Amino acid sequence: MRRNLSHIAAMAFNEPLLLEPAYARVFFCALGKEMGAGSLAVPQQAVQLDADGMQLAVTDYMAGGQRPAKSYQVKNGIAILPVSGTLVHKLGTLRPYSGMTGYDGLTARLQMAVNDPDVRGILLDIDSPGGQAAGAFDCADMIYRLREQKPVWALCNDMACSAAMLLAAACTRRLVTQTAKIGSIGVMMAHTSYEKQLAQEGVDITLIYSGQHKVDGNSIQALPAGVRADFQRRIDEARRMFVDKVSLYTGLSSEAVMNTEAAVYDGQAGIDAGLADQLINAADAVEVMVSAINKEINREVNMSQTNVSIIEAVAQENQRVMEILNCQEAKGREQLAQMLAGQPGMTVEQAKAFLAAVPAASVANTGDQIMALPEAKGREQLAQMLAGQPGMTVEQAKAFLAAAPAASTAGTGDQIMALPEAKGREQLAQALAEQPGMTVDQAKTLLAAAPVAGSVSVGGQIMALPEAKGREQLAQALTEQPGMTVAQAKTLLAAVPAASQPSQETLFDRFMAQHAASAVSGGGTAGRGEEDLLMSMP
């Protein structure tokens, strides 16, 4: 049914209006729809709407175009939520009313502010002595939870005591003014008895009840000792909960909070006690919070950039290591390449130069490389023979092996003869290969235990050098040096003068020479010289 809108039309048409263009379009769409208009034209904006377009414009505006009124003030992106007067469980209003603030209204406003895209942080402007315990802990837990989504600060302006202290403790940060009062972390309960007054006035009230504790704490009787003890237990438990919550929210120890003994602290003393973080002028609270948020954003950006730099550095280091380990020069020098890759600051080019200067044979034995060739598989006997050939290179052995047919299955005798332990023990190996039932493992053990025919160790060769005579101690030390060759030892021994004290062998030779058959037949004696010679022998 069409309504009579002539009075609105009279004010809307042919009269100057101060309307924002987008809203004006919606307004005239709604008004035109009510008046039966089928279209709307805005020539300056080249807009032409039919009836459906007009309806859509109105619907869109009603659905999302209108912003609900905020229940808090927003200044520089900070939502300011007043918390004043007595704190009660369910006040039923969003804002403080009649000297009270409801936990229900405060929680609702907090959730609105957290979801508000215009709000960067929330400031609780607190001026309250506390209030009900009922609802206080749930409200504080909600503040503690929401502060993970947006910063929630508390301004003690000028009182945050008891339940208000609980709410402030749950905030990210607590600001206090010079004259602020903060603390009172304790619990109290009051009981009123009208028993004497009623008796004076001649009023007798009889309580009829079922259940031992049904009328505990009634006001027409004095408080019994048992009921008082029960009440004391309840408030002690409530205090413990209060202390534990403050400890959780602030990071203070429960012992430190308990030791405040519900004291109230002024301004700086509250900071010294750990209950507040910063002393400010209340007028500067918003700017202080905005500055802190901006610094935190910058820190997170810098941290993010630092993390990116670290990730890039790790990637570069991994690339450096892999390039050193996988370069062509590392082939046959894997152990040295790994050591170079582990050196901080070692570049790929430097590592390549080091590796190229070291012969591959010093890192990996040629014989081992030949035996490890894929072509050696099935041709182990030939590979073993090639590995023992002086001057045989890996590439030459590879070509020989590739050209030879692989043995399908080598006989036990052939395997025994091909063992590394058979080298220098060929005669024994042949005998073992001919023994019925002899296994390769048994032959290997026996060969390893037998001395190599005609072989002399490097140490033995050094000790047998003519240059070692008179220099036995030095020669022994040289045999124990890893990598020492016979030629090197010979040069070193020749460069060292022989010991001035004759060796035992030399003295013995001299003694025997003087007592040879020719000397005896001549009838000569050594006399005093002989005695001296004998005395000088060790």
From TrEMBL:
Keywords: Hydrolase, Protease, Serine protease. One of its GO terms (molecular function) is serine-type peptidase activity. It comes from the Bacteria. Residues 146-290 form the Peptidase S49 domain. Belongs to the peptidase S49 family. GO terms for biological process: proteolysis. Residues 519-538 are annotated as: Disordered. The keyword Metal-binding does not apply. This is Peptidase S49 family protein.
